[in-house]
Structures are given as structure tokens and as C-alpha cells.
Amino acid sequence: MNIVVCLKQVPDTTDIKIDPQTNTLVRQGIKNIVNPFDTYALEEGVRVKERYGGRVTAISMGPAQAEEVLREAIATGADDAVLLSDGAFAGADTLATAYTLARAINKLEQYDVIICGRQTIDGDTGQVGPELAEMLKLSFVAYVSKIDEISNGYMRVKRMIEDGYEVMETPLPAVLTVVKEINVPRLPSLRGLTKAKSAVIPVWTAQELGVDNNMVGLSGSATRVIEIFFPQRVRCGEIFQGELESQVSRLVDKLREATIV
Amino acid sequence: MEYFLTEQQKTTKNLARRIAEERVLPVRAELDEKEEFPWAIMKDLADADMFRVFIPEEYEGLGGGCLDLCLVVEELSRVCSGVAISYAATALGCSSLLEYGTEEQKRKHLPDVASGGRLTAFALTEATAGSDVSAIRTTARREQGGYVLNGTKQFITNGGEAEIYTVIALTSPERGIRGASAFLVEKDTPGFTFGNKEKKMGLRASATRELIFRNCLIPEENIIGREGMGFVMAMRLLDRSRPGVGAQAVGLAQGALEATVDYARQRIQFGHPIISLQAVQLMLADMAIAVEAARLLVYSVAKTIDSGEKNFTEEAAMAKVFASDTAMKVTTDAVQIFGGAGYMRDYPVEKMMRDAKITQIYEGSNEALRTAIAFELRKRKARRE
């Protein structure tokens, strides 16, 4: 079983600051962490490996420092890691990111399951997983909360939906995104940390992936961020006065108007 | 402060802190309240390789020594001393094998201890034998095919939870303490049962039970070392484990100090945070000085032991006595600075104060150890060293 886990390094959002001049995220002095949802993806990958054997390969696209998340992945159970890093990848939206990841996964050649977190905590779109499946032409299941069984080239999973869950079977290879209910991620081990320290993490550039430069980074992005702003919080309370009965009927009218009742 | 730790030791200390903060802190009040053995945390420690720290590499350990163990115990104890001692008791319980076991015994048992798959415990104390170890009554009668154990061990940390026990018993009762021997007894051996779990003042996450032996037959190969060596071995092993109790005390005191500084910064009285009161400042400074001094003494003795030095009875006793007295003083002062709030279970310092008391009592009461230190002083003077 060859398992690929996609991870992203994100700023720790417990300590977020926006530059009021440029409306962009202040990254200086902010701790970077593994996107929390991706830690569940990695843990599930490692658990699948422990159950069925195989190897876990962790992949991340980002600047050179994103190597840190890959070392942490090795410390917590990944066997190999690959960093996708190139100036040409900068400014990628989800489409360009998924394209780049898909090229890298194709380059790995052997893969049975690709696991991603449900979304990142910085972009919050939840698009990369499904886009990746589309580009790799693989089946896709989102919001997986349990991997029941893998056998004979099939996988049975439970996925969360709004008012319950669905049990689905999918042929392999497949792409999954997982929710935090799926497991409790382990902490690194001392032997894992030692291994991570000396692990050689290859860096694949645009050239090595043989990508079309018009499909990666900012130039490959279908979307542009035009502005980042805090939504204005408008609070306008209204106080009704007069007879209680007229107050109630006015309230009911208001609620009807707002289609609440 | 630069403690001159190796890279590996720094990694170990950092990871132990992370486990303590992420896995122990959220449940420590509950573990204390419910007196629940922290199995889930033992599993986390095992998964993180923490039980490998004090086991040599040839038995699937990481080859660390006394200091490496102390660093883990200190970090766990900074958050919960009950968890720390449940972990540390395994290091003591298997130290008999590490120091005196045969190659076969080591190969058979140490890999399971290293993986965290089997906890261990050390059983010396009895109802009649506390500081007076010579008063033990448990016997091990030699018979065809092995030894038959009879007697009751008291206050055994990890009792009932551990799988492997080092038990000190008399093979030649007529020779008194010179007739004591050490044995390895596995849980589920017929004739080996446990008493009720003790209800304790502190360390309530840890399990303390009686071990009851009634015609418990153990195989001959389970003797550790030779017949008659039990007492000397036990004393040497306790010398070796005392810095660990010191580290437990240092962690406790450190945790109490940090909690107190946080509280003193936000508690307003007379219009200012109480940390601006000189009376509080002087107490905090004394607490910090004592904690640092205790830590350095513990680390120094641990490094001395790891260097291969053979004589460290005196130093190990000093580290344990000084650190445990520090923990008691610091946690008491912590409750004092917290005032009424500190006496309530809403804050962690009352638990720390309860937890600290035992460090002055077990693994050699501080009085017994002071006597031992004085004995060494006299002996040295007599030898004109």
C-alpha cells in the first residue's frame, strides 16, 4: 500500500495579525505549523500503513522553510518526504497548487491512496483535495471520518455529511480528504525525531516536475486576491415600545419580513 | 541557564515537555480527582519512545542514562507528579535487571520494557520494614524447581498495573538482611495477588498497592544476582534512583513557581498586581533560587552516575533531600501567595503541595538519608580522606 499525504505549512492562527497598510497577513515573527487538518491526514496514512503495510510519502509545496513540516511528518511516522519548491510556484491558488501536486504524485508513479486534510486554516477553501482527484482522474471522497476496510483494490469509508454519515466504497487509487473526527494524531517519537534530523528530503523544482510554467504559481492561478478586509460588523438593535400586544405583533412582522418565521 | 545537555538530551526534554503540556495538562485535575491510573498517557509515552530512554541500545533502548531519565521525569512532574512517578517507577523496577540481570534475563524482558509494553515495579517496603529495611519478613524458600515466596509487600508504586516486579525476600531468614535476595516476579504468577488500591494524599494518578505472596512458586532462573545479595543490591539501586526523585521534586517546584508567577501578575490587591508587593517578590525570588540550585544538584549527581563513578551514595542522598525539601517549601509558599484561591482545587498548587510531601518520605526518608550522609562524613574523616 503506497500512501501519499499532502501537507501544508501555515501560520499559527492563534496569533494572527493583519498589516493594516497592505491588508496582508503579517508573517514576520509568526510561528509556522503544520496545517492542523493535515495532521489527521498524516496520522491516518500512518495507521493505514500500520494495518496494511507499505510506505507513507509526505508531500508539501512551499518555500524552503516548508521542509520543517516534512521533517515533523517523518518524526511522526512518514517514511519519505518530497518538497515542491520553486520561485515559479509562488502565489499559487488552489488550482495551480493541485496541478503542481498532481504532477509530483504522477512522478512518484506508485500510489494507492492519497490523503489530504479537509481544508487549510489559512485559505479555508477545501478545494485542493477534489481538484487533485480531478487532475489525477481518480475517484474522490470528502470529509472521511473512518476508513473501514481496504481490500481487493477497494476501500470502504465513512464520510460525514450535514445530518449524518454515508458509507461509501471506492476503487483504488483514490483521493480522500479527512475530518478531525477520524483520529487523534500521535506526537513525534524520539527515534522518529532522530530519523527526521538526518533524513534527506529531495526538492523538486518546476523543471524536475516538467510542468507548464503557465499552469503553476500566480500565472497558473484562475483566481486573484484583490483585497483582504475585516467584514464590518453592523449591529443595529431596535427597541419596541408601547402596549405589549402591539410589540409582539410588530416583532412577528419583523421576523416574517426577515423570513425567520 | 546552560545545563550542558547533549542534543539528544535536549530533544528528549523538549518532547517530554510537549507530551506533558498536550496530553497530561488537559487531564491532570481529572486524574487526581478520580484517582485513575494514566494508561492513555503511558501509551503516549511508549509511542514517543520515552521508555527507551533509560534502556541500553542492545535491548532496543536509546542508551541514555540517569540524566536522560531525570529530564523526562522533571518535565512530566512539572505538570503532574502522579504521572511522572508512574513512569519513573518502571525505571526503578527494571534497574535490577539492568545492573545485575543475566544476559538471558535482559534479552527476555528489557525489550518489552523499552517498548512500553510492560511496566515494572520495585518491591522492598513491608508493614514492619520502612526505613528499617532489615525488618523485612517476606521469605523465598528454595524448593525443587524454584523458590516459593510468602509475605506481603506494602505501598508498592505501580502495584497491580505493572507486569514485572523486582521483589526483595529472605532466602536465609536466619542470616537476617544478609540472607535477602532479589527476584523477578511476573504478574499472573499463581499465588501472587494484590491488595486494595491505597487512597493517598497526593500522587493520586499513580497506583499504590500491596503485593501478596501465598506459596507463590517462581522459577529458579528468576533470581536476580546471587542469593544473599538482595540487600546490597537494593541499596545500590536506590542510590541510583534517588536523583530521579530529586528530578520529580524539581519538576514539581518548577511547575508551582511558574503557576505562582502567572497568578501574582494578574491578582490585583490594593490596586496593583500582587507581584509588585515586595513581600511576594522576595518569596518568588527565594523559590526561584531554590529550584535552580536543586536542579543543578540533581543534574550534577545524575551526570556523575552516568560518568561511571561507583561511589555516589552521599551525593545521590543530597540531591534527593535538597530537592524534596525544596519542593515542599516552594509548593507551600506557592499556596501562600495564591492565598485562599490556592487552597481551592480550582488552581493546581494545592495538588502540587499534596504531591510534594511524599518526596520527603519515600525512597529513603530525608531523616534516614541525612543520617546516611553524616555516616559518610564520619567514615571519610576516619579514613583521613
Describe what this molecule looks like in 3D.
The complex is a heterodimer of chains A (261) and B (385). Helix content of chain A is 30%, strand content 25%. Chain A starts with a strand and ends with a helix. The relative contact order of chain A is 0.17. In chain A, helix 2 (67-75) runs antiparallel to helix 5 (190-198) and helix 3 (94-108) crosses helix 4 (128-136). Chain A has 261 residues and is an alpha/beta fold. Chain A has a single domain, classed as Rossmann fold, CATH 3.40.50.620. Chain B is an alpha+beta fold. Chain B has three domains: 7-118, Acyl-CoA dehydrogenase/oxidase, N-terminal domain (Butyryl-Coa Dehydrogenase, subunit A, domain 1), CATH 1.10.540; 121-228, Butyryl-CoA Dehydrogenase, subunit A, domain 2; 231-382, Up-down Bundle (Butyryl-CoA Dehydrogenase, subunit A, domain 3), CATH 1.20.140. Helices cover 52% and strands 15% of the residues of chain B. Chain B contains twelve helices and ten strands. Chain B has helices spanning 7-24, 28-34, 39-47, 66-79, 81-100, 103-114, 230-266, 278-306, 313-338, 340-343, 349-357, 366-382, and strands at 120-123, 139-143, 146-157, 164-170, 180-186, 192-194, 208-219, 223-224, 268-269, 272-273. In chain B, the strands form three sheets. A four-stranded mixed beta sheet of chain B has the order 1-4-5-8. Chain B has a four-stranded antiparallel beta sheet with strand order 2-3-7-6, covered by helices on one side. Chain B has a two-stranded antiparallel sheet with strand order 9-10. In chain B, a hairpin with a 2-residue loop joins strand 9 (268-269) and strand 10. The longest helix of chain B is centred in the middle third of the chain and has 37 residues, at 230-266. The interface between A and B is medium-sized, with 9 and 16 residues.
